[in-house]
Amino acid sequence: MKILFVYLNINYGTPYAFDFHFGVASISALLKSHNHNVLGMVYGNRTNINELLGKIEYFEPNIVAFSITTPQFSIAKEIMQKVKKNFSAPIIVAGGAHPTLCPEEVIKEDSVDIICIGEGEFPMLELAELMKQSKDCTHIKNLWLKNGQTVIRNDLRPLMQNLDSLPFLSRRIFNNEKTIAGFIMVSRGCPYSCAYCCNHALREIYRGCGKYVRFRSIDNVIAEMKQLMKEYNITSLYFHDDILPLSMDWINNLCKIYKDEISLPFDCHVRPDLASKKLFEMLKDAGCQRVYMGIEHGDDYIRKTIMNRNISRDEIVAAFRHAKDAGLETYAYNLIGLPEENLDTIRATIRLNRIVNPTGTQATIFYPFPGTCLYKYCSEKNILPEKWGTNIFDDTIIELRMLTRRQVKHYQRMFSFYVYCKINPIKAILQLPEDNVIKKFFIFLLGVASFLRIKSFLKYAGLSLLKHMAWMSRKGKFL
Ligand code: B12
Ligand code: SF4
Description:
Rossmann fold, 7-stranded mixed β-sheet
């Protein structure tokens, strides 16, 4: 069978563009290992619908499969409609976070033939195999299919417990393997229940389907790393897992073997309340250069009660201190624009960032993902949007009682400037958005200063050379 995967990545642009999808690459690898013909396409800001239509015309896929997150869904609908209007042959499958969390909303789209809830590897393989043999596909677990006017809603299959049984990712699927070669995932799921994150909602969907948090074996992870070193000559690794050191035993073993057999610099995500001096020293010793940690919010009530993030200020401060003591760089994640947010609570987040003084920091704008506790909270307070926004760096989509849209946008853009302005003014200016006049002027001044330095150096070097030549000629050395 021929399958074209389309990963929707619109308005998730620079500087955070990431034109790769782990899930799609995993499904593709399994399909390829069963001799199906798979093609991938990233539908980004610069993609034109005609490019996609052209690809379908040329490749003639049996299935066009879209991977969709909630912020992409409104755009996805338009694109899928255009594909359906232009081609009657390929069936359209929608999978990913949004169809998993909001299946009824997605299946009711006329353009969508099938949706996949949850993990897509084996449902897609079964679909491709049965289609190839022209057999009935209506019973495939994890899939909802349309049969005339009715929708067949199949049950979920158990979560894959042995992640090692999957082939390594098909990294070439989007033709950008050089950029993403060092990106790796070694686990699935997270056991915590932060109210803004989809993990508790996904865990609820998978209730009764087996263990939600799963890790690959260390041998399997090391084998993939060795393959990446051989095939792509990678110079560093970035673990994209929600939290890498969830189990101390697992991370301990990984670090030991990693140090001996891989020994490349790497970055990973750590939850502050799991951090300790011992953990960071171990990570550093294995080659870790930077840890990403969520401060998330500086106001205790918002962090603990609204966000259900049961981590104290002291734990946050200690985690960053331990990381620095171990010689690691740190990067802080923060959220602004939460329900009950006001200027004082945003400032509390800025102040907490100043206290921990991370190497880098960013704030994104709260987005109420369906199925999460905070979505329900926003729904009860009647502050949900009528239309889904597309970007968590751009604008708030909920109505805030105590803040205007402009204020939220302003603090998102200027967040790292405010954090560093009292600690390191030069760094603060460099953190300003690219289009900021002060930043532009500062960079111009830096340019002038370095030009003058070069000029005075040249002048000095020229004068010294002349003096030296005069001395040499006085001594008759040129004769
Ligand atoms: C790593 C990660 C990223 C990485 C890489 C994402 C990527 N392109 O692969 C980066 C940093 C780039 C990223 C970006 C974003 N992410 Co993100 N990300 C994750 C994370 C932590 C893991 C995802 C992952 O790779 N899992 C492992 C793979 C194997 O599983 P998977 O992606 O879920 O795919 C499986 C199934 O979903 C399904 N599937 C997926 N696509 C398709 C398509 C078809 C056709 C089929 C049949 C099946 C299928 O099969 C796959 C294999 O089993 C999850 C959290 C989580 N625990 O899931 C959030 C998560 C997916 N991200 C999320 C969001 C919102 C975003 C961003 C909008 C903003 C942000 N938070 O930074 C952008 C959106 C980008 C976009 N274009 O939509 C949300 C999605 C919520 C929602 N309701 O849509 C999650 C759930 C986190 C959260 N907030 O709770 N993300
Ligand atoms: S710890 Fe991180 S990944 Fe886990 S539930 Fe909380 S926000 Fe989500």
